[in-house]
From TrEMBL:
GO MF annotation list: FAD binding
Organism listed in the record: Burkholderia territorii
Keywords: FAD, Flavoprotein
Highest taxon above the source species: Bacteria
Name of this chain's protein: FAD-binding protein
Domain FAD-binding PCMH-type as annotated: residue spans: 5-191
Alphabetical list of InterPro entries matching this protein: FAD-bd_PCMH, FAD-bd_PCMH-like_sf, FAD-bd_PCMH_sub2, Oxid_FAD_bind_N
Length: 243
């Protein structure tokens, strides 16, 4: 486990596996220290700043434990970059149904640095959520370490193997407040053979809302719908509606 302690920055603990993570949590409990959990750090701009003694960096927990394309299931360690997973799925023309968004540039960071653990912990889905559901709808199983420094597993590799209290659904969207995730098992879907984006400029809010509602009622699979009206990067630009 790597530990850095620069006086100008928050002390950082970087476990390389679940055992080191257990040791880090146990040590923090003994000394009354609190953690801020990060993977790629791309979502630290969400909400109020976290005030914690130590930064718990989970990016070292990286890698694909198993991927079964024929079963549409993959198990990934929490610190694995989303782009690594996307590249592996693309080889078999598969995808994550919830379309993970990339918030790096939005908060002044580098793009394509988000991790699977961060997306699951925050339950962040992209525009495709209206068609394919949220992140928690794709999570089959989780592994992690509790605040008491205990390892746990919940869920399974298929939907039919999941019984009892749905812990994976509880942890998805908990923002790391309930546990530190070490691995997640996700169900996949085949990638579409083709897709396109339609942009309509100049609609006011009422007309845009009507257009989006009509489009979502069509027999076509509209995977995302948005209207950028009063808040735009370029104030001189016309409102844009995207499908």
């Amino acid at each position: 486990m790597h530990v850095t302690d620069d006086r100008t920055t928050q002390p950082r603990v970087s476990p390389r596996d679940a055992a080191e993570l257990v040791d880090a949590v146990a040590d923090a409990n003994r000394h009354g220290r609190t953690f801020e959990l990060v993977g790629g750090g791309t979502k630290r701009g969400f909400g109020e700043p976290v005030h914690a003694h130590t930064l718990l960096d989970l990016s070292g927990l990286s890698g694909i434990d198993f991927y079964e394309p024929e079963e549409l299931v993959i198990k990934v360690r929490a610190g694995t970059p989303i782009e690594v997973v996307r590249a592996a799925l693309a080889e078999h023309r598969q995808q994550l149904a919830f379309e993970p968004p990339d918030y790096g540039a939005l908060f002044g960071g580098a793009p394509a640095r988000g991790t699977i653990g961060g997306i699951v912990a925050c339950n962040l889905a992209g525009p495709r959520r209206v068609l394919s559901g949220a992140v928690r709808d794709a999570v089959l199983g989780v592994e992690g370490v509790s605040g008491r420094g205990e390892t746990f597993k919940a869920g399974g590799r298929t939907v039919k193997n999941v019984t009892g209290y749905d812990v994976p659904r509880l942890l998805t969207g908990s923002f790391g407040t309930l546990a530190a995730l070490t691995a997640v098992t996700l169900k996949l879907q085949p990638a579409w053979p083709d897709e396109c984006t339609l942009l309509v400029d100049g609609l006011d809010d009422g007309a845009a809302t009507g257009l989006l509602a009509d489009a979502l009622r069509l027999p076509f699979e509209v995977s995302g719908a948005a209207h950028v009206g009063g808040v735009r990067r370029d104030p001189s630009a016309a409102p844009t509606t995207a499908l």
